[in-house]
């Protein structure tokens, strides 16, 4: 008996060390976390919270040492079998990332996707949406490992190509190394992604990496939630995919911005230049106050007025009218929305209110907006990397994050944020400060969801999150994206710049910003600002942009169009034949893209192909035989070609201006 126990223990140890070797070779950061934890346990630095127990009934369980309770309390192997049995190849327990019409359950026809809409319309007529079963699962997310046996059993059945395993507790993950062989997830050409002991921002980064890998398969993400305690992670995943999916790509918008930027450059508008910014460091060692449009501005507007002479003030466009009403004059106004409606934000009571301010636009503004501010000091920041002479490009999802990015670009190293709430006003539901350019009231009470709605991505879901100046606040998924946008940006610049950014807002906690009560600022120690904004911004701007000739690129585009036209005449005999021939022409096109003058053309092409291919891959991965006939495949090929040619002609039109 003793010999059997020793042999059993040795088997567990062998698996543990094999897993450590696997992690060391393939996931070194995870290995370092586990190894550090093990060392700290041995040295008595870390007190273990969990213990792996083998029950006499013949199964593993995990004991919570603090509460003296088992996580399972029943046979974990039987439970693993049950979970594997209910796991299937349908849409059950998954997130659909292709937008559908609620009434028909078919693909939504989105005009922003250009000629792709014709392919989508064709597929809507061919696919039986009432009987969706996939022949293979390409992407699977496990949320929580437990003792690991359910992960192993489900994976054996699903055999996913790309697997993401999320376990917020490094200690629990370490215990699973004794029971689960993690090397199986990377056998063959499969890929494993691990999120172990990560913060929310780090988890999102790992999720983003998982999503970007084989992105053409992001039509459906299957998932398994180990226990209810980790439901918040599923909420994070739903929130991430609510604004990170192929359907969010609008090539029409990108090409319009490209064309608009070229117009501004040809008209010799002023653009900020990175080398001049680095030379002059305009905001270094200055106190910079960023004012966004959130409701917390209402609580602090008097303080802002009284202390405006102590800060370089950067504000977003939507808050201008409120600032004018309270006689707060911003130094810099930032604006990114391409809509003509933005013009209303700049229609101040006093047309000279901003005469001593600088207005920095993303290079996508509508003509109506520019006509409204033509008498003021206007500058641009290029959205895409069109001119190398400018030295940088910047494209961010919301104007609040852009204001922070602009402050850091101008070399600010001490920033204070007000109105960056990422939450509605808790009593009224107001999303924006009073008297601002926007009025929007959010539903601020939680509503019950039925079982079928729980995995549905909805912007209006009320959720409770960590507060910036309070323990918790309520927000919704739409507003929560503002928090995510800030955090994603801050994560990218954390190791590039040294700065301190204090959040004085009353809303959600934003990782990367330091919460600070306004009463705790020793404002008396701040010096009065001396700052001529026009002189400063003029010194870091250029208007002689001469590296925007795309004649050779147009020749390459014409060459690609001819090649695609020839491919349309190729005979398609089978699914494999279709996929192989399409891959061949794509490789050829990518080689052509490499010799084009701007990387933006290749990026647009790849994003567009990803969008088309997600619809095609969804279709070809269905257990519906009639979808793989030579006739149907040829028709899909034709729509693919027509869509691509339409894109190329639009690119050609945009660069010809």
Q: What is the count of β-strands?
A: 20
Largest beta sheet, briefly?
8 strands, parallel
Structural class: alpha/beta
How helical, in percent, are the residues? 40-55%
What is the overall pLDDT average? 90
How many helices? The count is 20
How far the N terminus sits from the C terminus, by CA atoms, comes to: 84 Å
In percent, how much strand structure appears in the residues?
A: 5-15%
* Contiguous uncertain segments of 5+ residues: 442-459
Provide the gyration radius in Å. 28 Å
**Form type:** globular
Query: What is the topology, as strand order, of the major beta sheet?
Result: 14-13-12-11-10-15-18-19
Which structural traits does this protein have?
657 residues; 20 helices; 20 strands; alpha/beta
């Amino acid at each position: 008996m003793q010999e059997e126990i020793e042999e059993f223990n040795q088997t567990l140890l062998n698996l543990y060390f094999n897993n450590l070797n696997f992690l060391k070779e393939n996931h070194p950061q995870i290995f370092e976390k586990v190894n550090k934890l093990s060392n700290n346990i041995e040295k008595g630095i870390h007190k273990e919270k969990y213990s792996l127990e083998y029950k006499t009934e013949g199964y593993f369980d995990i004991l919570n040492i603090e509460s003296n309770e088992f996580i399972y309390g029943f046979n974990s192997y039987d439970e693993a079998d049950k979970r594997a049995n209910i796991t299937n190849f349908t849409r059950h327990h998954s997130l659909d990332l292709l937008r559908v019409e609620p009434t028909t359950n078919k693909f939504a026809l989105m005009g922003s996707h250009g000629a792709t809409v014709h392919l989508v319309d064709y597929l809507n007529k061919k696919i039986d949406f009432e009987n969706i079963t996939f022949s293979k699962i390409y992407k699977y997310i496990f949320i929580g490992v437990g003792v690991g046996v359910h992960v192993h059993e489900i994976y054996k059945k699903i055999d996913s190509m790309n697997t993401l395993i999320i376990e917020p507790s490094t200690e629990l993950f370490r215990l699973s190394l004794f029971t689960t062989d993690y090397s199986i997830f990377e056998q063959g050409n499969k890929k494993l992604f691990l999120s172990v002991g990560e913060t929310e921002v780090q988890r999102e980064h790992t999720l983003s990496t998982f999503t970007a890998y084989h992105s053409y398969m992001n039509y459906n993400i299957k998932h398994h939630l180990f226990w209810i305690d980790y439901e918040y992670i599923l909420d994070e995943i739903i929130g991430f995919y609510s604004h990170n999916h192929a359907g969010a790509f609008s090539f029409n918008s990108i090409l319009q911005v490209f064309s608009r930027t070229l117009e501004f450059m040809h008209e010799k508008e002023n653009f900020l230049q990175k080398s001049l910014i680095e030379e002059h460091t305009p905001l270094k060692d200055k106190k910079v106050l960023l004012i966004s449009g959130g409701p917390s501005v209402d609580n602090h507007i008097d303080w802002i007025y009284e202390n405006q002479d102590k800060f370089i003030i950067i504000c977003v466009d939507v808050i201008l009218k409120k600032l004018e009403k309270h006689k707060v004059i911003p130094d810099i106004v930032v604006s990114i929305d391409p809509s003509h409606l933005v013009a209303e934000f700049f229609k101040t009571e006093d047309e000279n209110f901003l005469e001593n301010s600088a207005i920095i636009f993303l290079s996508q503004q509508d003509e109506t907006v520019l006509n409204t501010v033509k008498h003021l000091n206007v500058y641009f920041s290029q959205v895409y990397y069109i001119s190398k002479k400018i030295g940088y490009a910047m494209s961010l999802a919301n104007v609040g994050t852009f204001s922070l990015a602009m402050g850091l670009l101008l070399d600010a190293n001490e920033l204070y944020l007000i109105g960056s709430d990422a939450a509605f006003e808790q009593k009224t539901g107001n999303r924006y400060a009073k008297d601002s350019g926007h009025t929007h009231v959010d539903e601020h009470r939680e509503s019950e969801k039925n079982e079928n709605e729980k995995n549905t991505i909805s912007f209006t879901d009320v959720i409770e999150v960590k507060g910036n100046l309070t323990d918790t606040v309520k927000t919704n998924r739409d507003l929560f994206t503002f928090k995510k946008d800030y955090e994603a940006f801050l994560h990218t610049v954390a190791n590039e710049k040294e700065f301190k950014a204090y959040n004085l807002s009353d809303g959600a906690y934003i990782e990367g910003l330091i919460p600070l009560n306004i009463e705790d600022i020793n404002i008396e120690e701040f010096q009065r600002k001396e700052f001529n904004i026009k002189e400063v911004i003029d010194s870091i701007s250029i208007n002689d942009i001469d590296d925007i000739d795309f004649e050779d690129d147009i020749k390459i585009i014409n060459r690609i169009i001819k090649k695609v036209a020839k491919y349309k005449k190729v005979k398609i005999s089978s699914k494999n034949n279709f996929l192989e021939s399409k891959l061949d022409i794509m490789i050829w096109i990518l080689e052509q893209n490499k010799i084009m003058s701007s990387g933006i053309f290749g990026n647009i092409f790849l994003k567009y192909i990803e969008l088309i291919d997600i619809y095609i891959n969804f279709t070809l991965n269905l257990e519906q035989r009639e979808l793989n006939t030579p006739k149907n495949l040829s028709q899909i090929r034709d729509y693919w070609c027509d869509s691509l040619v339409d894109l190329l002609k639009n690119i050609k039109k945009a660069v010809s201006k």
